[in-house]
Write a structure and sequence with these properties.
- By secondary structure, the chain is α/β, with parallel strands linked by helices.
- The protein has 2 domains: 102 residues, Rossmann fold; 125 residues.
- It is built from 10 helices and 7 strands.
- The strands form 2 sheets. Strands 2-1-3-4-5 form a 5-stranded parallel β-sheet, with helices on both faces.
């Protein structure tokens, strides 16, 4: 992998912990190890991970305290739970905590590897959505500021022609739109992540949709100030993209 995903494995069974970590490293992943709940929590606070693989019964993890604390330690982190002592109670807890997978030891490494791949893909997609939303939010704010000051300012801002400023903004917006297409293609190819997102109502996609709507509203409000076929075409494309999501 050019940019290897970083995993954290938390398990107090030393042999299983080290052998699993070595196998995952051979698959190209960067892997850290923890032998207790508190040690795993400390590593989660210090580093950014793409996935957590955690045993249920280990020191310092009463009532799945480590997983309960994930939202505060690393929001949105996919979690794979493993246990040699499956119970209905822990299985129900796993479902309520939106755990990616609940696996019973001993397990086949290829099965674990498949879940790891899907979890990492889901995490990467979430990160890409967050980055796209940030870009669109920045663009919308810049566009709103320009529209507000256009009536009182000269055609140049700090010596830079408005057309040039608009060009730079549209360039950033174009990057966000292309990234949005990439996300659609990516989600179509990650069936498991797509189903998880659908079940959880995917709040990141809802935020992304809201920000996109704000961009459309700004373009509509400023169409009288900025006469541009390119801006009109962009508004239509954004409206089409939002429409296709519903």
């Amino acid at each position: 992998m050019d940019n290897p995903a970083r995993l954290l494995i938390a398990d107090d069974e030393e042999l299983y912990l080290l052998s699993t970590a070595d196998l995952l490293r051979q698959e190209g992943y960067a892997v850290d190890c923890a032998r207790s709940g508190p040690e795993a929590a400390r590593l989660l606070q210090q580093n950014r991970y793409d996935l957590l693989i955690a045993d249920i019964r280990m020191p310092g993890n009463p009532d799945m305290a480590l997983i309960q604390g994930i939202p505060a330690l690393n929001q949105g982190l996919p979690v794979i739970l493993m246990t040699g002592y499956p119970t209905a109670q822990t299985a129900i807890q796993a479902v309520n905590l939106a755990v990616l997978a609940y696996l019973v030891k001993p397990l086949e490494f290829k099965d674990l590897l498949g879940h790891v791949g899907r979890g990492v893909a889901q995490r990467r997609m979430q990160q890409a959505i967050d980055e796209s939303a940030r870009r669109i939010q920045d663009w919308a704010g810049e566009m709103a500021q320009l529209a507000t000051g256009y009536g009182t300012a000269s055609a140049n801002t700090a010596g830079v022609p408005v057309q040039q400023i608009l060009g730079a903004m549209l360039g950033r917006m174009g990057e966000a739109v292309l990234n949005m297409k990439h996300l659609v293609d990516l989600s179509a190819g990650v069936d498991e992540a797509q189903r998880v997102c659908s079940i959880q109502h995917c709040p990141r996609l809802e935020t992304y949709d809201r920000i996109l709507q704000e961009g459309i509203e700004i373009l509509e409000k400023t169409k009288g100030a900025f006469k541009s076929r390119h801006l009109e075409d962009l508004r239509h494309k954004m409206e089409s993209a939002v429409g296709n999501q519903h």
